[in-house]
Design a protein that fits this description.
By secondary structure, the protein is mostly beta strands. 4% of the residues lie in helices and 45% in strands. It has one helix and twelve strands; from the N terminus they run αββββββββββββ.
Length: 170
């Protein structure tokens, strides 16, 4: 069976050059994370928060990057309403107002969309770990990420976009 997350790891080899700041090390690679724009919650004004960190790995063949999305409303039900992570090699900063999402900006050119899993200890919160190969070929690559959550708002289903993140490898 083909690994469904393989395209996510391959995105790290399709990024653009960047000049990252000091970051977290994994073998020969250093990962730097930066916010690339704010999110939006057109239905409620509340915005989910996306963060990322490099997890420790005893095997230096891969570098696990954990993305965590925290929806703004504790009334969300993580097991009933999904959250997704969008990854891509560029940030188009595309205004989504003409599509009915007033004040929203798409902060990643979607190359891959993956479901995030609810965290059992923190509700509501979602996580996804992407295994990045620890290869020096990836030095100079930047990948962009943005999360979105679907949840209940006043009896309706609403879409909320998180802030954008860049993951630069040096």
């Amino acid at each position: 069976m083909r690994n469904p997350l393989l395209p996510l790891a391959l995105l790290f080899s399709a990024g653009s050059l960047a000049a990252p700041s000091t970051g977290q090390a994994c073998g020969l690679l250093t990962f730097s994370f930066a916010t690339t724009g704010s999110g939006c919650g057109p239905a409620t004004g509340a915005v989910p928060t996306l963060s990322a960190t490099l997890l420790s790995s005893p095997a230096l063949t891969s570098c696990p990057v954990e993305f965590i999305l925290v929806p703004p409303s504790p009334a969300s039900f993580p097991f009933l309403f999904p959250a997704f992570l969008v990854l891509g090699a560029s940030n188009p900063a595309l205004d989504l107002t003409p599509l009915g999402f007033a004040g929203c900006t798409l902060l990643v050119n979607p190359s891959a969309i993956a479901p995030m899993m609810p965290l059992p200890t923190v509700a509501p919160a979602f996580a996804l770990i992407v295994q990045v190969p620890a290869s020096p070929v990836l030095i100079g690559v930047t990948v962009y990420a943005q999360g979105f959550a679907v949840g209940p708002v006043a009896g309706l289903i609403a879409l909320e976009l998180s802030n954008g993140l860049s993951v630069a490898i040096s």
